[in-house]
Amino acid sequence: MGGVFRKLGSMAIDMVWQLGFIARFFWLILYYSGQSFTRLRLTIRELYFSGVLSLLIILVSGLFVGLVLGLQGYEILQRYGSTDAMGTMVALSLLRELGPVVAGLLFASRAGSAVTAEIGLMKVTEQLKAMDMMAVSPIARVVAPRFWGGVVSMPLLAAMFSAMGIFGGWLIGVVFIGVDNGAFWSQMQAAVDFRYDVLNGVIKSCAFGVAVALIAVFEGYDCVPTAEGVSRAITRTVVSSALAILALDFVMTSFMFRGL
Amino acid sequence: MSEPLVSLENVRFAYGERTILRDISLSIPRGKVVAIMGGSGCGKTTLLRLIGGQERAVGGRVLVDGQDVAKLGRDKLYAMRRRMGMLFQFGALFTDISVFDNVAFPLREHTDLPPELINDLVLMKLHAVGLRGAARLMPGELSGGMARRVALARTIALDPMLLMYDEPFTGLDPISLGVIGQLIRRLNDALGASSVIVTHDIQESLQIVDYIYFISEGRVVAEGTPEDIRKTSDPFVHQFVHAEADGPVPFHYPAGDYATALVGGPA
Questions:
Q1: Is B249 inside any structural domain?
Q2: Does residue B219 lie in a domain region?
């Protein structure tokens, strides 16, 4: 019994240490962010790697999620004779939840894992140490641009995911099933509130961007510098990012959409 | 005689409970090439990390150009590192940029020189290591020896006062090994710098260095000029120079009684 408590206590202490270390690391990223903006070329390069190269998976996934939403939505709404509300249902589902959350999960798998692998391999091959010995801070030169590349990319990708999903819903509902085109768009326009629905979705995707980018750069920087260490760090990035996104989503949803 | 560029005074260092360096005192005179030798895991690379300020000693002092490295803040430490160059074991080139950009990296980071001048300086540094023709190649296209020469060009980009080499001869063919050895000596003399080489390669080192320290179990166990080392009867140096499996450095890792272990006792 004592052993169990000791183990739990040890785990709790480790977790507090880890959280403290992440917080300090986050502070250092913010401290060095000025340098990454003055060398904008580096951040734009990371925007390309994290954002532009993730476009394909985001757009294709958004389309399919929209197609499925259209099919399921029509099937449910027709029971109540409300198929005209299909546009509203598709748009609200995507803007409030599916856009930020699914785009965040895909972003963590595609870009987050790549960032962790890249920084981890730089650590394994002593590139980070070499940089540090050249009096160039690896956090300013390597970590901060990748962090901001992820933070800026994420809300843009989530917006494109939602736009593509709405297009998918329209394709199924209006083009293939025959829902009225005017009703699809006018109901959506009437029911979707910019501040309440769109802006809250954007805030969520920004928060997910910070979480995924921070986890990805931290895991890469903190990994054990071996092949196995990098592999474990990549796994941790994907798993921790997914859990962070889902937990943050619940907390933010409970504050944003109370139905009051 | 002028004060040495680097002095280690009774330095102790440990990773957690594991003591690496017990009581090391040594010095790197200005303008000289000094080798630090010893078996794997004896703390040679840790010494370089202490000199470069990447680790802090738990006891004693590490002085570089009269300054205690452990007491320097981040900005002063970085200012000092701009006057140091370190060649890593496998070069540590940045794999996403070309050979040219690797050598230009410290110049672009630390100077406001115009691109034309940086171009000329980079070509001069690459010419010094015989790789001007490889300027546009990517690091992945280089052999191990070439990668180390490019890293050497990058190391000397800012004309440092101190050059540190971490196992510069590991994994090289005899020609590349000789080339790197000669470059270390020639560049040290041409730049008026001081060099410290951490290595196992005794034969190559004896040809190019001015002084050698041997480290074992966290202490300096022998030292001298290449002449002294060749003549010495010190058992540790003899074992090291003649690559003998057993001697002052034991073949067996410390363990309990062998017979007892074989009949079921603790290993």
A1: no
A2: yes
